[in-house]
TrEMBL record:
Domain YprB ribonuclease H-like, residue spans: 466-550
Disordered: annotated span: 155-179
Protein name: TM0106 family RecB-like putative nuclease
Matches recorded under Pfam families: RNase_H_2 (PF13482)
Transmembrane segments: none
InterPro entries from the UniProt entry: RecB_nuclease_TM0106_put (IPR019993), YprB_RNase_H-like_dom (IPR038720)
Amino acid sequence: MVDEVLLDAGVVTRCRRRVHLDNDPTMVGTPLAPPDPSAEQRIADAEAHRADIAERLQIATAPVGNGEDPDAAFGLADDSAATWTVVPADLAPAERAGLTLTALEEGVGYIWGGLLPRDREAGRRGGIQLLVRSVDGYVPVLVVRHRITDAGEGARTTEVTDLDPANASTDPDRKVRSHPRDQLRLAHAYRLLQAAGFAEPDRAVGGVIGLDADVVLWHDLAAGTWPGGRTALAEYDSRFADRLAVARAAAAREEPLAEPSRVLECKGCPWWPTCEAELTRVRDVSLVVRGEDAMELRRAGIATVDKLAALDVYDEPPIQWTGTSFSDAVSLAKAWLADLTMVRRVSQVTVPRGDVEVDIDMESFGDSGAYLWGCLLSGADIGVEHGYHAFATWEPLPTDDEARSFAAFWSWLTDVRARTAAAGLQFRAYCYNALAENRWLYASAERFAGFRGVPSTADVRAFVDSDEWVDLFRSVSDQFLCSHGKGLKVVAPVAGFAWRDAEAGGEASMRWYRDAVGMDDTEPDVAQRARLLRYNEDDVLATQALRAWISERAMIEVPFMEDL
Ligand code: SF4
């Protein structure tokens, strides 16, 4: 007997092979990669955010009880408009679906946490955070924990407490931030509502409440806002049909419609041990070139790393490359075959050096702020103590105390630069991937403008644009090919560096930070602060080791790609 296939909204943005494996009955019991703690934390944070929004909306939409017409506040149709049904998340799915259906049939104004009736014929199941009753149906509203708009104009919004899309107007201060996944989730809920007979008949709209929860952003799912003038619904329908075919073939143990291929999603996918073993067994080309390039190479008959490595880069390229160049792809394949983490793509490698050098690493917590700027001073003596200097706030973010720590960091850096210049010496500061540091340099200058010691945006720009600020990630990217990724945790060990903390990593540091500041209603954990400082110190020691290695040893230790 073939298992019934019912897919949730997530499948339309998921790897096709994952959809296959999730629905292949022969894979039941296969060992999976352990859950990623940071992903679990993100899920928990999203749940807390949703609970907060639910509470705020219930308070905001409660009847006023002073003789005023309660329905007037909601722009809704009748007495039932102000009513809420909250479907408990811990009930069995069948009970949740039953409660939701009852609420829909009774015309409840707001249904929170609903699970919609399954659409067995279409192979669809799922729910949505909020269903809002309108005049002639229900409108889905998604609550997410990311930013959904940017500064600009043109988004269709209402106040966050106004859940009626008929009141949406063109926002003069916000434009839509692209989140295709949000619209596809709304389309999934819309199709479920439609199948159950509760969708609005004349329009397909859905709302999103984001991290800032200042507005509801309304999407017209039937408007041609997608590439090629497609609608969100059309895009959703075609993706869902494809995933359904993959899942049904897997459930029926037919020829698979999706094979493994290394993509970005593999990093956090539970099936990676299975796929990695298979890709390695067949020496799949996606082990060295990901995504679209790997698919095109397979179509061109170059399915293995060996075949890619054997190509002559002076011949006609076999495909139109998107993620890399022909010669880099061939060199990466050769490096993989030789089990090399790095190869030189240039005959001479260099990194700008100074008389006085500072390695800088910033630690942030999501979008909430930058709580730590760590600096390692080395080089000529300018009357400032050499070694590691940390500028931190341990008040939970967001906090204005971040302005104090940021100003202290900037004052220290400015003093070091001024002393170096006064001594007639060359100053350089280093980081690994300046995108993150630059983001928070600018954001801190903007958010804390006017606080004592906080630089102007122009001051920040003058530093960021100067030759004094060196991004080692760029140096590595320009001069090396890295067959296992270009992250500092991959590259610095090649230079002989090791972190003291075996768990060190950006994701672990998020957990440590929560404990360090007592974010989850716990006592602040001083030991975790020390751990974060040590981790940050090791990061700047790692960039110091890396640049010294590039200057002194990489030429000897790393083969040149043309010599492979
Ligand atoms: S490991 Fe990668 S290829 Fe395999 S199912 Fe997951 S995302 Fe897809």
